[in-house]
Specification:
Layout lengths: L7 E7 L4 E7 L3 E5 L6 H9 L3 E6 L11 H8 L2 E5 L9 E3 L4 E4 L2 E7 L8 E6 L6 E5 L18 H16 L6 E4 L22 H7 L7 H10 L8 H9 L15 H9 L3 E4 L3 H6 L6 E2 L6 H8 L6 E6 L5 H8 L7 E5 L1 H6 L6 E3 L1 H6 L5 H5 L1 E5 L3 H6 L6 E2 L5 H4 L7 E5 L4 H12 L4 E4 L23
Parallel strand pairs: 3-4, 4-5, 5-6, 10-11, 12-13, 12-14, 14-15, 16-20, 17-18, 17-19, 19-20
Antiparallel strand pairs: 1-2, 2-3, 7-8, 8-9, 9-10
Protein name: Rhodanese-like domain-containing protein
Pfam families: Rhodanese
Length: 467
């Protein structure tokens, strides 16, 4: 590095969490910001770049995943930086706004940025006279800010006002300061839809031109931000206490493989049996009483949202498919000690299988095989979020957001239920829930845009600062 360069940043995308982790370094020593519980990617990136992990920081006590910061710091003999005013059950280096720390040749300034949480902080890394790198956590994001209703509903508006002021504090940094938030890449911690330049790393100057928090006065911003908050996963309420106890520092409880008899015993005693296969494979044949949640980036989010916290859980995978990635994703949000079962041919042969139809929008338009009685008894169930439904939906459809369906299945009108979402993923989960409850179901596994021309639009919600 020369005196005119900016700090080097390695960004790790964490799609299963909807977040990013960052390693900022001087070519030899690194500060890791907001690491996940699974440290393999972080340590792999440091090793590949030949970096010593000299310090680890959390911008805040996270509400959406278990932090790996304490464990990473202890493994590498590094300082763990966290706001001094955060009440936690472990030792750390408590930092306050205005503190300046040296990490190798980097200068790291702590900036108090309350809003997303009460004691939220940002970290500004700089070297020489070049532009700094700002690690804003859940404060100033790309085109929005972090939501303010996760700590305490009674503090939502107060923290939203603090979020507005914190954004202006960050806006006072040099315009070329590069912005590296943690949230806003799929996490429900973002207060709205994130946006940014088409290429390159956004800067503070970019946000001045695009981010509503820097364009609205405080009171209109607070009102619009709070009004725009949607639901968030049920498991979030457990993350803060677990992180304050430092739970992410220990290894997850191990899993074990079940035999068929053990699986059936688990089902009989009320365990949740989650089938990870692709949604069309699940629809074609599955063990009765199971729930199909196709494995992918959103898998852990919806398991944590739909399966009651602390319930016994068994993952069903095709024979020969390693369940380790799914177990790792679940451990990232504190779900561990999960059993697994291999769905081989013998297991299916020993048990009757469930199945339901998969269709597309052309099938919906053409009816139910030309039978007018069946067509009259069809129910179209929309399981998208409220804002998606309000933006446009089909006349006569019933709306129940996916996360509300387990408690509201009895409210689904009688008849053959055709269930849809935006792309088919959430509808696949909803179809499995309905089939598990004994309903006749058809999974509309198709893109909403193919039928959007037939939608009956409602007035779009008033523009809100979070996007």
């Amino acid at each position: 590095m020369t005196a005119s360069t900016t700090p080097s940043v390695i960004t790790l995308d964490l799609p299963h969490l909807g977040n990013r982790c960052h390693l900022v370094h001087d070519g030899a020593r690194a500060l890791v910001v907001d690491p996940p519980r699974d440290l393999a990617a972080v340590e792999g990136a440091a090793e590949e770049a030949q970096l010593e992990i000299a310090a680890v920081a959390d911008t805040h006590v996270h509400n959406d995943y278990l932090s790996g910061a304490l464990g990473l710091a202890r493994r590498h003999g590094a300082d763990y930086l966290l706001a001094a005013d955060e009440p936690v059950e472990f030792e750390r280096v408590g930092v306050r706004g205005g503190d300046v720390l040296e990490v190798g040749r980097l200068s790291v300034r702590v900036i108090d940025t309350p809003g997303h949480t009460r004691h939220h902080q940002a970290f500004l890394a700089s070297y020489g006279d070049g532009p700094g790198a700002l690690f804003s956590g859940g404060s100033l994001l790309h085109g929005t800010v972090g939501r303010t209703d996760l700590v305490d509903p009674a503090l939502t508006a107060t923290l939203a006002a603090a979020q507005w002021q914190s954004a202006r504090t960050l806006d006072e940094l040099p315009p070329a300061t590069r912005l590296h938030p943690t949230h806003g890449f799929g996490s429900f911690c973002a207060g709205g839809v994130t946006a940014g330049p088409d290429a390159g790393t956004p800067t503070v100057a970019d946000q001045r031109a695009t981010n509503p928090v820097l364009q609205l006065d405080r009171d209109p911003f607070v009102e619009a931000l709070v009004a725009g908050f949607g639901p968030y996963p049920a498991y979030y309420r457990h993350m803060g206490p677990l992180n304050r106890a430092g739970s992410g520092r220990r290894r997850p409880r191990p899993s074990r493989r079940l035999a068929l008899e053990e699986l059936l015993d688990a089902r009989d005693r009320g365990a949740w049996l989650v089938d990870l296969r692709p949604r069309r494979s699940y629809a074609a044949a599955h063990l009765p009483g199971t729930l199909g949640i196709e494995y992918g980036a959103q898998f852990a989010t919806y398991v944590g949202w739909l399966v009651p916290w602390g319930a016994e859980l068994v993952l069903l995978t095709p024979s020969g498919v390693d369940p380790a990635p799914a177990l790792t994703d679940l451990a990232a949000i504190g779900i561990e000690g999960v059993a697994t079962f291999a769905l081989d041919g013998a297991a299916h042969g020993d048990q009757p299988t469930g199945r339901y139809r998969v269709a597309d929008w052309a099938d919906w338009v053409s009816g139910s095989g030309g039978d007018p009685d069946l067509r009259a008894r069809r129910v179209l169930l929309d399981v998208r979020q409220r804002d998606e439904h309000d933006a446009g939906h089909l006349r006569g459809s019933v709306h129940i957001a996916l996360q509300d369906l387990p408690a509201r299945i009895a409210q689904v009108p009688p008849g053959e239920v055709w269930v849809h979402c935006r792309s088919g993923f959430r509808a696949g989960i909803a179809a499995a829930l309905l089939a598990r409850a004994g309903r006749s179901v058809v999974h509309l596994d198709d893109d909403w845009q193919r039928v959007a021309g037939s939608a009956v639009p409602r007035p779009r919600p008033a523009a809100r600062p979070a996007g």
